[in-house]
Amino acid sequence: MSLNLKAFIIDPDSSSRLMLRQVMTTIPDFKTVLQFSSPAEALNSFNSGSAVDVVFISYTIGKQIVKNFIQQAKNTQAGQDTAYVVILQSQAEGKALLAEIMMDGGDGILCKPFSVEQLREITHISLRVKKERFESREKAALSLLVPEIAKQLDLVCSIKLSGIQPDSSFKVLREQCQKIIQRGEASFEIYANILKSHLKTVPPPLAQSFKVYSGASRRLKAKMEKKILEKFSDLNRD
Hints:
- This protein has helices at 14-24, 39-48, 63-74, 91-103, 116-161, 167-182, 188-199, 218-237; strands spanning 5-10, 30-36, 54-58, 83-88, 108-111.
- Helix content is 59%, strand content 12%.
- The relative contact order is 0.09.
- By secondary structure, it is an alpha/beta fold.
- α2 (39-48) runs parallel beside α3 and α5 runs antiparallel to α6 (167-182).
- The chain folds into 2 domains: 5-114, Response regulator (Rossmann fold, 3-Layer(aba) Sandwich), CATH 3.40.50.2300; 136-237, no CATH class.
């Protein structure tokens, strides 16, 4: 099954770009391959395009330029999870520069002469790096969102058990959950695991702290909900 990868080739040497492109045609996982003669051109595409899976960038451009490009590309939405592979002129150069390139933000190297096996291997490594980077970023973001959602869910349950429709509180909860939905299907398992761990550490809703209202008017219940919100806020501050 093809992975439908999107890749960039950045190399001022057109024959070198074509050589790598030809090798890539033998691997069906690469669906979209865009070629650039400079990092500036590629960066413009990062700023305006969709997510990129792998970038191959030639070290002949210059160490500092490659380092700066990777840093800038990682700060774009399309490039934040991208795997960055540096193209080197020989295996000997690869052995000498691998550690330095990794310290400068690269995720791997691809040495000339290109081969199908070498390209396939570095592609698999790059995809693993991309997945790990995505999961790390999502865990950091969701670890901030989940406690707030759990707290709001407790509040909705508490107000509901007190005999009042938690209209405004439920609206806030819906907006918070929408942030999870917008992160996409790939984030859901991470979210579920963080939520499961979090719920093991928090007490149940504080319904017993509130009086049950059964016959109040809609306007009065709205006022009651506001008072419960204030009380719930005070309880969370203690």
